[in-house]
């Protein structure tokens, strides 16, 4: 069984930064971050996959968020800059052993393993 543990959430003012980390119990082909705001559906934020660390981002966070994988390959970080109040949500780490070659790689159904989540709150 794969475990994922998130950390790094918190409260910041608009324009601030936060860094989320996800530590997996083993190497996973793909690790992604999702978020779910109160009363809204879960949405994919960013994913990193393959040994080449290819990345994909949601349009709403592109150029503000950066996903990366540490040298130990079991830790994935989401650097969040220029945070906005609309970024407020519970953030979840998710992992998959494989991904399709095309299509929406930020679809929740593609990811088998999920962490418990960490809260991010951005105030205006």
Uncertain segments are: none
Cα end-to-end separation: 40 Å
Give the H and E element order. EEEEEEEEEEE
The amount of beta strand, in percent, is over 45%
Task: Name the average pLDDT.
Answer: 96
- Treating each run of at least 4 consecutive H or I residues as one helix, how many helices? 0
Shape: globular
Query: What structural class is derived from the secondary structure elements?
Result: mainly beta
Total E-strand runs: 11
Which tags fit this structure?
124 residues, mainly beta, 7-stranded mixed sheet, 0% helix
Outline of this structure?
Helix content is 0%, strand content 48%. It is built from no helices and 11 strands.
Write up what this structure looks like.
The chain has 124 residues and is mostly beta strands. The chain is 0% helix and 48% strand. It is built from no helices and eleven strands. Strands 2, 4, 5, 6, 9, 10 and 11 form a seven-stranded mixed sheet that branches. A four-stranded antiparallel sheet has the order 1-3-8-7, with no helix packed on it. It is globular. The model has no long low-confidence stretch (mean pLDDT 96).
Write the layout of secondary structure elements.
Layout: E1 4-7, E2 10-13, E3 18-24, E4 30-36, E5 43-49, E6 54-57, E7 65-69, E8 75-80, E9 89-96, E10 113-114, E11 118-123
Parallel strand pairs: 2-11
Antiparallel strand pairs: 1-3, 3-8, 4-5, 4-9, 5-6, 7-8, 9-10, 9-11
């Amino acid at each position: 069984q794969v475990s994922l543990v998130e950390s790094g959430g918190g409260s910041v003012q608009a324009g601030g930064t936060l860094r989320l980390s996800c530590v997996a119990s083993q190497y996973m082909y793909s690790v992604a971050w999702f978020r779910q705001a109160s009363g809204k559906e879960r949405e994919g934020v960013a994913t990193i996959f393959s040994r080449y660390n290819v990345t994909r981002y949601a349009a709403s966070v592109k150029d503000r968020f950066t996903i990366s994988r540490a040298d130990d390959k079991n830790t994935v970080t989401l650097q969040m800059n220029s945070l906005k109040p609309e970024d407020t949500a519970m953030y979840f780490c998710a992992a998959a052993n494989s991904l399709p070659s095309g299509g929406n790689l930020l679809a929740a159904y593609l990811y088998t393993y999920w962490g418990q989540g960490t809260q991010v709150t951005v105030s205006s």
